[in-house]
Amino acid sequence: MSDTISVNGEQHSLPSDPRTSLLDFLRHDLGLTGTKKGCDHGQCGACTVIVNGIRINSCLTLAAMHDGDEITTIEGLGTPENPSALQKAFLEHDGFQCGYCTPGQICSATAMLQEIANNWPSDASESLEGEMAATGEEIRERMSGNLCRCGAYANIVAAISEVAEESA
After folding, report:
1. In which residue ranges is the amino acid composition biased (Polar residues) (predicted)?
2. Global pTM?
């Protein structure tokens, strides 16, 4: 065990308290407050981050469980000066209102588009084999774990669809 974790490309020591959630480690120990604490029960998706390319709810896992892992937060996807394609699309399509869920939505969408590119089927997929497509139905199904209290879902789907079409 290396007792380190890579967050947005930077190495950090794991917290000394093994009970620290990944979410609390990111927010309190590293000061990466883009990842939000919504429900703290894994039901809203506000805390979604990407671990080794897979999206997870950071409130449901302990930081100590990610020794040696690569974590990407919203801060690691883009900056105000150089936003990611999804961050730009969310702005252009007004894919947020209050913005609280937006970091989790964008992290989830980033990993979701990679799932589709990897041809991983979802419950909405027409087939378990072959090339997957980022249809509206696929996007809605795959993003169903990320809630938006403001109801910006149509704009979120439009933003993700635009990026999916550009990268296809």
Report:
1. 1-14
2. 0.95
